[in-house]
């Protein structure tokens, strides 16, 4: 087999790019092999409390370094893993791997939480609750340390599917976050029905450098909505000091982004957690 490619490798032109349908099928086999042969990894991006820079958790982000394809973004392979029914196993691997990792870090960072992205296909799986609990048991991680991130579009597309599982998990102490909030037309009534703990403001609203005008008004509205509903609010994609200042001024509680801390391999994370508050204080 070809040796593994490192991070940052640019995808070179390959003949398979011509034949997309064929590639689609071969991707299925590659994804199956990837899980079996250990080609997936997890990177972690801290969630930072904006008032003082304290890292309150880490989001697990899957990475695929394919010997044949190089680095493949989760944006590209997650939908295909869903289509081929592979996401339940891949998602479970992420959950178990990251739960074990965060349980280990909690010896030095006792309050650290874990945020994990969950596909709608995992949520509606009949054994979803058991799968989550199994991962926590393997890791010895308390349920209160875990926040499951589901995108707004998944939650709104099938409002009743998975609702029982979410309530069951919430009853066991697991927290729920709505990822990419603001892009999926949530009904406010529905927000109150779901056992939600956290809203993550989609980075599209944070993206413009100065955070002014309509973007600022929208972010302010989401922050206020979260306050009214008693939810944690996290701004995604903070890339510069101006955005950070604007968000702190609005009273946005938490943030993530390249300006605060980039996603990193597990080995680099403890040092980053120790230094995390510098961007906020400086
Ligand atoms: P997401 O959950 O909304 O994750 C945030 C994405 O924004 C991540 O991209 C992260 O690396 C990136 N990001 C963080 N800070 C910044 C910033 O300051 N600027 C910019 N431009 N980007 C930033 P990534 O890792 O490529 O993941 C993309 C999406 O793939 C995730 O969006 C999530 O929907 C999905 N994903 C990642 N890992 C998993 C997983 O284990 N399971 C599932 N089901 N989906 C996953
Ligand atoms: Mg996420
Ligand atoms: Mg997001
Ligand atoms: Mg996103």
UniProtKB/TrEMBL annotation:
Residue ranges annotated for the EAL domain, each copy included: 24-277
Name under which the protein is recorded: EAL domain-containing protein
Residues of the full protein shown: 445 to 726 of 726
């Amino acid at each position: 087999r070809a040796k593994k490619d490192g991070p940052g490798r640019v995808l070179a032109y390959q003949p398979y790019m011509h034949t997309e349908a064929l590639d689609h099928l071969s991707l299925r086999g590659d994804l199956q092999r990837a899980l079996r042969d250990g080609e997936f990894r997890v990177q972690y991006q801290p969630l930072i409390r904006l008032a003082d820079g304290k890292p309150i958790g880490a989001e697990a982000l899957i990475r695929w370094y394919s010997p044949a394809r190089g680095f493949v973004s989760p944006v590209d392979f997650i939908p295909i893993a869903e289509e081929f029914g592979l996401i339940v196993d891949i998602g479970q691997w992420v959950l178990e791997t990251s739960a074990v990792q965060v349980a280990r870090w909690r010896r030095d960072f006792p309050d650290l939480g874990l945020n994990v992205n969950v596909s709608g296909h995992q949520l509606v799986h009949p054994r979803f609750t058991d799968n989550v609990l199994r991962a926590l048991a393997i890791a010895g991680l308390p349920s209160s340390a875990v926040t499951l991130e589901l995108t707004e579009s998944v939650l709104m597309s099938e409002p009743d599917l998975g609702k029982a599982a979410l309530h069951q998990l919430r009853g066991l102490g697991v927290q729920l976050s709505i990822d990419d909030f603001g892009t999926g037309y949530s009904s406010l009534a529905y927000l109150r029905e779901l056992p939600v703990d956290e809203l993550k403001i989609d980075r599209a609203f944070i993206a413009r450098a100065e955070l002014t005008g309509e973007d600022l008004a929208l972010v302010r509205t989401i922050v206020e909505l979260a306050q009214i509903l008693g939810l944690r609010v996290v701004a995604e994609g903070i890339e510069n000091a101006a955005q950070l200042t604007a968000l702190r001024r609005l009273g946005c509680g938490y943030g993530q982004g390249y300006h605060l801390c980039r996603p990193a391999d597990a080995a680099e994370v403890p040092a980053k957690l120790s230094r995390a508050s510098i961007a906020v204080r400086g």
